[in-house]
Amino acid sequence: MINAIVFDVDDTLYDQQAPFNNALKICFPEASKKIDLHRAYIRFRFYSDETFCKYIAGEWTLSFMRFNRIAQVLKENGFTITEEEGLSFQEVYEIELDRIQLLPEAEAVLTKLAGNKEVDLGIITNGPTDHQLRKIKQLQLEKWIPIENMIISESSGYAKPDPQIFHLATKEFHFDATKTLYVGDNFDNDVNGAKAAGWNALWFNHRKRLKPISRWDCDYEITCFTELPNLIDELIES
């Protein structure tokens, strides 16, 4: 039986590709016309996840990490940019992120779950604290989830897939790991991290990625948020 559900934020509760696409078209119009935007976004997320740990460890500055991820994506497609151009992209990208909205299906699920007194809710998200807090406020997530049940990687000192961030959530949220479900779109960060900490994991594979090689498997997989309400009903009632 599941009695707690914790959500990822980026590209799980909102569509992160839209602000990426818009920023790319504004800053690099020539490149945006020639490259596969969906694949470019997937690679952008890959480099974000791969290099964020370097920032957390103090090996890279936040500015360089942000420049590097878009520079690597464009380099793969035959385009070279300066660090100044990369940081200009980040500025536009952040403006676009200020316009994000919850997926309608996510809002419906959160509303339904928040009304169930037998289920607790939480958030674990990777990213710089100020940056992620802006998203949380823009998405108005505090309407459904108490702020004390939200952990942002930079402020915690850990980052997914490190199971320590999940252990911290178990302790801080007062959840039972064996009865907690983590919902996220990134198999490496979300499924591997949650499973290593003894949680249940639901892979929200709406980008329809291939499952990476891993010692872990997800407990559940969906490709559309509309599949989530019925699945949660089954998990809560079982």
UniProtKB/TrEMBL annotation:
Gene3D superfamilies linked to this entry: HAD superfamily/HAD-like, Putative phosphatase, domain 2
Record-annotated membrane-spanning stretches: none
InterPro entries in UniProt: HAD-like_sf, HAD-SF_hydro_IA, HAD_sf, PGP-like_dom2, Pyrimidine_5'-ntase_YjjG
Residue ranges that the Swiss-Prot or TrEMBL entry lists as coiled coil: none
UniProt cross-references to NCBIfam families, sorted A to Z: HAD-SF-IA-v1
Protein name: HAD family hydrolase
Species per Swiss-Prot/TrEMBL record: Carnobacterium divergens DSM 20623
